[in-house]
Amino acid sequence: xxxxxxxxxxxxxxxxxxxxxxxRIEFCSNLDQDGLTPKIEDxxxxxxxxxxxxxxMLRPHSKSFIYDEDDLKKIVDTINICKKIxxxxxxxxxxxxxxxxxxxVLKYISIISxxxxxxxxxxxDFTPDFSKSFNSLIDxxxxxxxxxxxxxxxxxxxxxxLSKICSSIPKDFEFIACGNITFENYDYIHSIIKSKFYxxxxxxxx
Length: 206
Hints:
Blueprint: E1 3-8, H1 11-19, E2 24-27, H2 40-47, E3 54-57, H3 69-84, E4 89-92, H4 103-113, E5 117-120, H5 130-140, E6 145-148, H6 159-166, E7 174-177, H7 186-193, E8 197-200
């Protein structure tokens, strides 16, 4: 089965995406800032309304992917609520001052978030050496998957690398292809990279 995850930042779009065939929702707020942590009341209402998996964005600000103690407290509070309302997983990414993955912070969030699925988001595309970061992330065993366009803005500009990744990842690791993948270019992109997971704001028509 091919899973199409729709990224939305409001309740109405989430419900419409569900009705139009989305297999999973990534729920956030402020897509104009590439997605921030959603309001808990909206997440709770959504969880009671649709019966497909929901993943919650953990991103308290859009200034960077660096988080201080106050930020981490907000993130942990959101994780604990997600556990109580049976959210399928959380989506998170953290970098250090050199734009490398901050594995100390990631390990902390990985421990806190269990048993939720933990997905590392497109912060990985900002690292200086994508392949090195991707392999280190898999080797760390701290996350259940990664959401990425392989270090570029658009998946369609990186099909060779994305295809290579799809053919070599561990079977239990979610490689979620993203980056301007829409219902209009999905068939072409999938014919080349053959991922089992796709993500986008317009990955289905609704």
